[in-house]
Amino acid sequence: MDKKSMKQFEKLLRAKRVELQRAYEEKLSRSGDAGSDGALDSADEASANYNKEFWYSLSDSDRQIMRAIDEALVHIADGSYGDCVHCEKPIQKKRLEAVPWARHCVECQELQDRGLLEE
Fold first, then answer.
1. For the chain, what is the mean pLDDT?
2. 58 and 10 co-located in one domain
């Protein structure tokens, strides 16, 4: 991959990382709000608990994406960004444009999704 494209992807990755960090901080501030005054009835309390669980599950997903972004930034630094971590073939540019932190080419990702790829 040429340096210009790599710089563009690095910019996308860094922007996504900042976006996730801001969303995570916002979720943390919101999760403290529910039930803080102790005046919730049981339906409100159940709703607040569901919302907390929803936010926490999203943060797990966000953390996985942040780890993938950090890994992609390391690959940019060492010049291996854009290569599938399994077969080492180039990942399609359209795929990287959609998911800049993608680790696999389409073929290997399909294998991963079906549980046929060990890592």
1. 85
2. yes
